[in-house]
Design brief:
260 residues, four-stranded mixed β-sheet, six-stranded mixed β-sheet, 17% strand, binds 4-(N,N-dimethylamino)cinnamoyl-COA, 2 domains, Lyase 2-enoyl-coa Hydratase, Chain  A, domain 2, alpha/beta, 11 helices, 2-enoyl-CoA Hydratase, Chain A, domain 1
Amino acid sequence: MAYENILLEKEDKVAILSVNRPKALNALNKETLLEINSIINEISADTEVEVLIITGAGDKAFVAGADIAFMQNLSAMEGREFGALGQKVFRMIELMEKPVIAAVNGFALGGGCELAMCCDFRIASTKAKFGQPEVGLGITPGFGGTQRLPRLVGSGMAKQLLYTADVIDANEALRVGLVNQVVEPEALLDTVKKIAKKIASKGQVAVRLSKAAANEGMQTDIDRAMTIEADVFGLCFATKDQREGMTAFLEKRKADFVGK
Ligand code: DAK
């Protein structure tokens, strides 16, 4: 299927979704969110794809936020609907069984920072800039920023960023734990593809169960979380990948996983 605001490529079990609205620095309007929604469904069902990378087309922006021109004259009910759509799509990305990595290549502001935060982790180029500028526009973040930022960087740092609308660079994002690694812009996509392909080479049932356990466990108390871990650990012993992984280790060869 062809998309107007998104480029989609697939390479060796890795899909790359690039938000592509150069005239608005890849800002998210309703159509773009609907296209991302449909791509997430497509990639979730695609048996050839094990890992998704989300990035921004061009060299200036990952995503410069929700589209301010689109939002300017929304009614309260339309604003609520737009916020709910973004929240739903971002939550789908977060809960997707397959891992999702954000390759942040430029401005990741407002909805762009929120898009990066719903991915499993973030790798940034030295040109990346992060922030939640919404209070400067007279609104609160609406796609999960007030909730995911404190969970990622801690309450104090998140509140400072939310209240001041300050924009931080990639090294500061690394320091506060918003990104895992900072690389030169030319190396960004190759670095992220390499990580994605490494993930794709492992046992995919175990990768996906690890994601589910980490996501679910972080929302609950440690005792319940340990039960979740014990359950997914047990489930692995019903898979061909567990037999193959352990047999390959003992036979001193590389495992040939089948994802079952
Ligand atoms: N929306 C629409 N257009 C945008 C845009 C955006 N977020 N960001 C940039 N553009 C457009 C600019 O208007 C400009 O268009 P033309 O004038 O060329 O037609 C073009 O992209 C290039 O931008 P600049 O000329 O401004 O480029 P600069 O390099 O000078 O500056 C910048 C880059 C990223 C610093 C600047 O563009 C900027 O400050 N952009 C806005 C960043 C921002 O404030 N983002 C947060 C948006 S608010 C909710 C739902 C959702 C949300 C909240 C609540 N509910 C329903 C509860 C989410 C809110 C947001 O994300």
